[in-house]
Specification:
By secondary structure, this protein is of the alpha/beta class. The chain has helices at 32-43, 57-68, 100-105, 126-138, 218-234, 244-253, 276-288, and strands at 4-8, 47-52, 73-78, 115-119, 122-123, 144-151, 162-169, 175-187, 190-193, 201-202, 207-215, 257-262, 268-269. The chain contains seven helices and 13 strands.
Amino acid sequence: MKPTLVILAAGMASRYGSMKQVEGFGPSGETIMDYSIFDAIRAGFGKVVFIIRKEFAENFKSVFEPKLKNRIATEYVFQELDSYSEGFERNPERTKPWGTAHAVLCAADVIKEPFAVINADDFYGSNAFNNAATFLNVGCTENNYAIVGYDLLKTLSAHGTVNRGVCSLDNNGNLASVTERINIAKKGDAITCEDGLEPSSLSENTRVSMNFWCFDPSFFAYTKELFDKFLEEVGTELKSEFFIPIVADQFIKKGGTIEVIPTTSLWFGVTYKEDAPFVKKSLDKLISSGEYPSNLW
């Protein structure tokens, strides 16, 4: 059974200021997602699941269906505030869904095989997809998940601070925890993190999560349990969010293992509008080196 790729595309990033998930960066108008899907197909994935907002459905389908028809199976899943939260009290002013782990949970009905989860607006690289596919095909079990770890230095923006999930590793090199660190920037020779937490400076090769996870389908039942608990405890708070690292942390505490998959791939993304020219330049370089064709589809 071929693994599935889940793309988290329900959000429109406020800092970037447009629906960047469908903006063209490649020479033939390719989106960042196009490159991820192209890499996933090459690595042997059999299906892509887009998690989107219902109001974007027609827009997404009109962009992706003509390209992907007969290349890879597609599914569209809607992340709604009410999904999996029936019977729980919530703040009446809340309009935003519950975060990344909730988004993945919304795909439970369409995934029965090992799967990877990525962000829509991040470029992960072919080596990352190949390594993830190998893990999903031979190493993924209900007690063994994985995350692709990137070197922090390769994930910074020249145009402002970034937030990153900093990975702590155990003695076996597996994930011990992911800590969300904010306001990370390179200042001179140092990488500083101004969020009041220690350490206030981080090493260049600190492993960070760019939200590229590999899960067994057992993730869904486990996540539903934790989501119910989350709603009971903080479901009435206006801005409470149920993130994938919350599930990962509990999974590890219960005795599960999350391998940290290394990658030689360069990560890049569009955190700020000013990052767009760098993304285009990086893609052009990969195309001229033969990594990608100038027209993916």
